[in-house]
Amino acid sequence: MFPRRQDYRMKRSGGPRSASIINFMSAVNSGSVRRSSAVLPSLLTFLVIIASGGLLLMIEKGMLNGMETPSPRGNGRRLDFSRQAGERSADAADVESQILQEIRNRTIRTVCSQKNMPHSIWSLSPPQRKTLLQHILVNDEYRFLYCYVPKVACSNWKKVLKVLSGALENVDVNIKMDHHSGLVFLSSLKPEEIRYRLKHYFKFMFVREPMERLLSAYRNKFGEIQSYQKKYGVEIIKRYRKGRAKDAAVTGDDVTFAEFVRYLLDEDVEHMNEHWMPVYNLCQPCAVSYDFIGSHERLESDAEFVLQRVGVPPHVHFPERQTWYKPVTTETLHYYLCSLPQKLLRELLPKYILDFSLFTYPLPNTTTEHCRH
Fold this sequence. Notes:
With 373 residues, the protein is mainly alpha-helical. The chain has one domain. The chain has 14 helices and 4 strands. The chain has a 4-stranded mixed β-sheet with strand order 1-2-3-4. Helix 7 (226-240) crosses helix 8 (257-265). The two termini are 33 Å apart.
């Protein structure tokens, strides 16, 4: 459950980057990365940010755990205590959400304040700006911008936007998703129209644990989508599987995760397919001051918060996950990452280090001892 609207207030902080970020004033108050782009802050800086942010979150969670309601004593008081426990559980979830937003906002402000980071979309290179504008969807009636990230429930968000624009009857309609018709992209507008919307509209995006998102893309695109098997799978197998470079019989439907990772290591992040391009490069959170950054891990409550915040009609709700949806479980991710040669994983992580650091996800633990279990 996300914090109720009366539990937060917007605070404008000093500095050019933080002017429109929502600060939640509650329990808290206060391989290569890119081969030919601007110099990024050091890896050490990011790891310190991750460690400090994660530590703060663990401390706060510990405090919350220490405040849990004691077990009921006696049948006569059980229902009353159960009700209180439920209320406190909801309050704890509210506070945890506030803490996460505050840590994420602080981290983004810290990293994006570096002089070598972009501070507006106009300071991006033309290819970077093109990618960004092609991933921001516009709704003028409810005055919001949504940067969509593939493999982070973007199809469901597109359904919501289509319903709001009248292109779709309701979000529960079971049809093949057209990812372009009935949608307005920021890239289709004139520069002055873009500036106005970036300044005045509510801006949000959703993120997901980087390796989980990557694995989700791999399983979906190479396990189910024939067009991806032909376009990418054939190339990957011919390039990275011994003795198959000139094999005309390669279909691309059996790409291993290790082969996929090797392919990613040879790719420039700015030219990757959107399904595995880092979120940072898709949505440029240093160049755009997002008012809210939701999490795939809290999808339902965060989506409900956004819908209430922008004021959509009550009948418009966020779609439920389809019955065929196959989530990437912790155990599944653990299996795939631990099955990778550790050298590959060490080379892969720097490509997604901004996604880990900016959105406060801990780096995966793939030590020998951890993987043994």
